[in-house]
Design goal:
Layout lengths: L5 H54 L6 E3 L2 E6 L2 E3 L2 E2 L24 H4 L3 E2 L8 E5 L14 E8 L2 E7 L11 E6 L2 E9 L5 E2 L9 H6 L4 E8 L3 E8 L3
Length: 238
């Protein structure tokens, strides 16, 4: 019986090597594509979840000023908002075709709360507000009101709250990293005269009125380093 020659064996091994290389290249490309898809989905969930929380916070603002930690008489307004931080790219191109809009349905449940950690920060806040509707699924003896603050530290947007509405010096806020990779964030506030304000309360309001008044709506523009700009206009309830 005639066997295989050395040349035939070498040719067979060469063909096998080529096929193996092609198969590995296809497998590697498919795996890299799957990893990129998973990273994109994870990033999308992070941004969508964060926008839901922000939408709920601003939509459920209540006209409840709070005392400061250092004074029983001095009050902080129900909403104290700045224009934001960082420089946005050209916003004139923002529209229904180029911006992403997320639903602001309540999404702040037990799974969200589990991602919070107790810590503290000395970074000046961009927005401080009192909101209602704080979920109390555990039936704890506490108010349904919550004092919320937003800060931007490096490229991370952080949301924090205190467990007591009128804080004391020893009351440590609970902080969550809401967004990463933030390039800039901008806030605007629509007053009762349908005029957009860059800070809140407006500077021309009397002190007493400024402590409890709320805007009609709040515009938020977040620019991410990887996803570009996302714009939301949130109507304030009540």
């Amino acid at each position: 019986m005639r066997g295989f020659t050395l040349i035939e064996v070498m040719v067979a091994l060469l063909i096998l090597g080529i096929m193996s290389a092609l198969g590995y290249g296809t497998y590697r490309a498919a795996r890299q594509s799957a990893e990129r898809t998973e990273e994109s989905l994870k990033r999308s969930r992070e941004i969508e979840f964060g926008m839901r929380i922000m939408g709920q916070d601003f939509a459920e603002m209540v006209p409840r000023p709070i005392r400061t930690a250092l004074s029983d008489t001095q009050r902080l307004p129900a909403l104290k908002g700045t224009a934001g931080m960082g420089t946005l790219s050209n916003t004139s191109s923002l529209g229904s075709g180029s911006s992403m809009h997320f639903n602001s349905d309540p999404g702040f449940g037990a799974n969200a709360a589990s991602s919070f950690t107790s810590t503290s920060t000395t970074v000046a806040s961009l927005v401080d507000l009192t909101r209602g509707g704080w979920s109390n699924t555990a039936g704890m003896q506490r108010s349904t009101l919550q004092r919320v603050s937003y800060t931007l530290l490096n490229d991370v947007l952080k949301r924090s709250y205190v467990t007591v509405l009128d804080p004391s010096q020893n009351n440590v806020p609970v902080v969550q990293d809401l967004f990463t990779g933030v390039k800039a964030i901008q806030f605007r506030y629509l007053d009762n005269n349908q005029t957009w304000q860059t800070v809140w309360p407006p500077v021309n309001l009397p002190l007493v009125e400024a402590s409890w008044t709320r805007p009609v709506a709040v515009e938020i523009i977040v620019e991410f380093k990887d996803w570009g700009q996302i714009r939301r206009v949130i109507e304030v309830a009540g």
